[in-house]
Amino acid sequence: MRIPIARIVLSLLLVPGLLHAGGPMPTFEIPADTALQGKSNAKLALPAAGPADDQGKSNPVQEMIHRFPAIEFDPVERAKQLGAGVDPAFEYVRDHIRYETYPGVLRGARGAYLTRAANAPDRAMLLAELLKTKGIATRFARGRLSEANAEILFNRMFEPTAPVTPEAKKSAATPFPLGLDFIDRVRARATRDYAILTASLGAKFPLATNPTHPGILAEMNPHTWLQAKVGEAWVDLDSAFSDAVPGRHYCEVDDFVDHLPESSHQRVTIRVVAETLDGGSLRQATMLEVTRPVDSLLDLQVFLVHAPQSSFKALGQAVAGGKGDVSPALWIDGVFTFGKPIAFDEPGAGSARGGRGSAVGDALDALGGGEAKVENATQFVAEFLELTLMFPDGRTEVTRRVLSDRGGAAWRATKPLDSKGLRPLARDDTGLVDVQTIHNIWFSAGRHDLAAYAAGLQLLINAYAKPADQPPSDFGGDVWPLALQNFACVLWGDHAFLPALNDDPNVRFYSDSPRILLFGANARPTHGKPDKMDVDSVIDLRRDKIRGVAKHPEGAMAVARRKIWFGVLEGALEHETTAQMSSMGDAEKSLVMSTSAGFTDSAAVAIRPADPVVNRQELQLPGDASARLTVALAEGDTVVVPRDYKGDDIGWWAISAATGDTRAVWGRDLNMAVRNDGGRTGGGSGNGGAGNRVDPATGKGMGRRKGSGGNEYGTVVKEVSIPGVGMVRQSVLVGVVVAVASAAAAIAAAIAGAG
Predict the structure, then answer these.
(1) What is the SS3 assignment for 63?
(2) Are 745 and 179 contacting, i.e. CB atoms less than 8 angstroms apart?
(3) How would CATH label the architecture of 70-168+220-264?
(4) Based on CB atoms within 10 Å of each CB, which residue in 178, 581, 624, 743 is the most buried?
């Protein structure tokens, strides 16, 4: 089916406003207390039903392409503009890249350039990249700053923003009239939720205890700067200090390195863990594990899926690691890594295979001679995605997300554990529902390449304008539209919400470690209606942490309030994004579930870890919710719960005692994210999405590309049958195109408003 360009392009409502109409621009600065009166009971607007066909003749994606010149996003292009020699590149980094402190390498050279802010190691890497294009040899020097010089760098974080370049000024001037309604709805919902939270907290705002001022100074060491070879001499180029000049250094050198070692980088291990019940004890085993420096994952497309052994059989089982039915598979920018097989065994539940095999699987059958037996003496309980951050100082932090769970928080709290209390796994005609879900993971630590994003949107529009001209796609081509759609939520936080927090010169907000955002998509035939599909979509802003620093101790309250404001902005984004997608779909039935939706008025109660147990008992929460609340309070969170909740899927706001980060919590996930039930879409970190039933006839079927070149295993990996991908390709992508395309104008307007 040909999709009208007008429908794709003119429904660009979800992307933060890179483009905006004349007149006052809606902004996301924190509301004043006087502006909150009466807002806790505000009636919130609903999105219009479906995109209009005649909203104008302008093409917002083309507007974006013209507005965002490559030089603003590509450090190599910037280097070409800078003069010869060392001085122009050094002065550019010194004067146009803000100083922000965080542990180790986080953004790398490209991320430092995109964000126009970096710590000492990242800005040294950026300067090295600029000088590399000029053929100038460089090396890194490391030493230890005195406390006095560390204080100078601390104060640099609060300096005014560097002057805007002429290219950036030009790009900010393009008006476009779409997206303002979406922005208004996000701000209205966030303002209502902020009013509810502040009223329930009263004067007892959780004030962050981390990072401390001494802790911030400590993470500046070891200090890193660049040296360039000029003639026969190595010249110091320390761009971190505002008064720096070539040849000046601010501490003695401890060592030189040609490349910063991996130990100086923030790193992340992506791990899939299977949990089983064995003789009354829970056991966990790692089924897949990949470790990367964070800066190598920023803005890459990352997907976690499950591949059935019916697609491997003999050869596939050998490379996947053994016997079993389904293997987790991590796809990072075109490369698959397969884990060990997981047996999703339930007594009496029948076959656990998660999907049909492919032609390649049949070919492997012929080569390898049949299907392996699966022998399991234990019962499957749960599958988790673990994301372990490792910092250069040795600290680690684990973020865990439930992928599938038969137990639940209340069951885990019982002693002894009884297998009779395990829930059955959701299944449909094609297998396990959870196994068919496609998980998209985005890592972000600053701003992004908007020129590349606009080009991607245009490419997507072109692909659907002339479907007959498009070649068949592989896995990457199938999931690419989903990645573009989800990336809009990443852009909102980094380009619109986070900059708006820096409206007070005495506080500074930025990413000091990666924001990790998860998205899920699942499409499957509706039981009894073979011509329809059940489509689930999940937004889970899983690790949505930012750093807030006050210049003086008395600024702690300003930081606390803005942390809460950022959290409710992100919660409003989750809700309104899924609501907008729902309004644009051809749905027989849709449902938006979110933490924000659960707060219908100001009847909310704040519960603190030190409060008596009776305070939470008075709420009479369902078993799983009560157990999860107990866990949250034990970790030090302050929790704001609605008094008039309905059903078991209660949501709340959780505020971290250590950092003040505020997140929306929803559903049955042990780690505070949503779980989907058939026929509806949930959204996470606690917010829900729209559950649409879409006629598959409106989807564009895309065949598989046969392997060309490369090794045998690479070809098998490309062609392996991934449960859920085909269904999503068939039934969801048209809606995705509209939703992705619906992203561009609003992102454009909000970013212009944020400055």
Answers:
(1) helix
(2) yes
(3) Roll (3.10)
(4) 743
Q: Is 639 helix (H, G, I), strand (E, B) or coil?
A: strand
What are the φ/ψ torsions at residue 405 (nearest 5 degrees)? -150, 125
Question: For the segment 389-427, what is each residue's pLDDT rounded down to a tens digit?
Answer: 999 999 999 999 999 999 988 899 888 999 999 999 988
Which residue's structure tokens are 């073979």?
A: 530
Say how far residue 517 (Cα) sits from the centre of its chain.
2
Q: DSSP assignment of 344-394, as one string?
A: ---TTS-----S---HHHHHHHHHHTSPPP---SSEEEEEEEEEEEE-TTS
The Cα 15–Cα 493 span in angstroms is 11
Per-residue pLDDT at 168 exceeds 80: no
Please report which helix (H) or strand (E) contains residue 587, including its range. Answer: none
CA distances from 175 to 73, 748, 749 (A): 21, 9, 8
Close Cβ partners of 34 (under 8 Å, ≥ 6 residues apart):
none
In three-state secondary structure terms, 147 is helix
Cα dist from 583 to 123, 590, 591, 690, whole Å = 44, 9, 10, 8
Measured between alpha carbons, how far is 278 from 379 in angstroms, rounded to an integer?
7
pLDDT bracket for residue 669 (50, 70, 90): low
* DSSP strand pairing (117-118 vs 98-99): parallel
Cα separation, 524 vs 731, in Å, equals 9
**Segment 569-579, tens digit of pLDDT:** 999 998 888 88
Rounded CA Rg of the chain: 26
> Could you give the C-alpha distances from 65 to 186, 257, 748, in angstroms and in order?
25, 40, 11
Cβ-based neighbours of 466, under 8 Å, separated by 6 or more: none
Point out the least confidently predicted range of 169-173, 253-257, 463-467: 169-173
Cβ distance 120 to 103 under 8 Å?
no
Share of the chain above pLDDT 90, in %: 44
Dig out the tokens for 34 from the structure.
């006087």
Residue range 511-539: average pLDDT?
81
Instruction: Specify burial of residue 701 (Cβ count, 10 A radius: 0-12, 13-18, 19+).
Output: exposed
What lies within 8 Å, CB to CB, of 409 at 6+ separation is 624, 627, 628, 631, 668, 670
Report the DSSP beta bridge partners of residue 522: 536
Tell me the HSE value of 125 on the side-chain side, using a 13 A CA sphere: 22
Q: Across the strands, what pairs with 534?
A: 524, 693
Q: In which element (H, E) is residue 547 found? A: strand 547-550
pTM: 0.84
CA distance 497 to 589: 32
Per-residue model confidence (pLDDT) at position 453: 86
Instruction: Compute the half-sphere exposure of residue 749: CA atoms within 13 Å on the CB side of its CA.
Output: 27
- 198: three-class secondary structure by DSSP: helix
Task: Copy the structure tokens of residue 179.
Answer: 């997206």
Confidence of residue 348 (pLDDT cuts 50, 70, 90): low
Question: Of the ranges 361-375, 416-430, 645-659, which is most confident?
Answer: 416-430
Q: What is the DSSP string of 414-455?
A: SSS--GGGPPPPPEETTEETGGG-EEEEEEESS---HHHHHH
Host H or E run for residue 393? none
Q: Which residues contact 311 (CB under 8 A, 6 or more apart)?
A: 357, 358, 360, 361, 364, 720, 721
Q: How far apart are CA 671 and CA 383, in angstroms?
A: 13
Query: What distance in Å separates the CA atoms of residue 295 and residue 275, rounded to the nearest whole number?
Result: 30
pLDDT in tens, 696-735: 232 222 222 233 233 222 223 333 444 444 434 443 444 4
Q: For the chain, how many residues are written?
A: 755
H/E run at residue 225: strand 223-230
Instruction: Give domain limits for the chain.
Output: 5-58+496-701+730-754, 70-168+220-264, 267-390
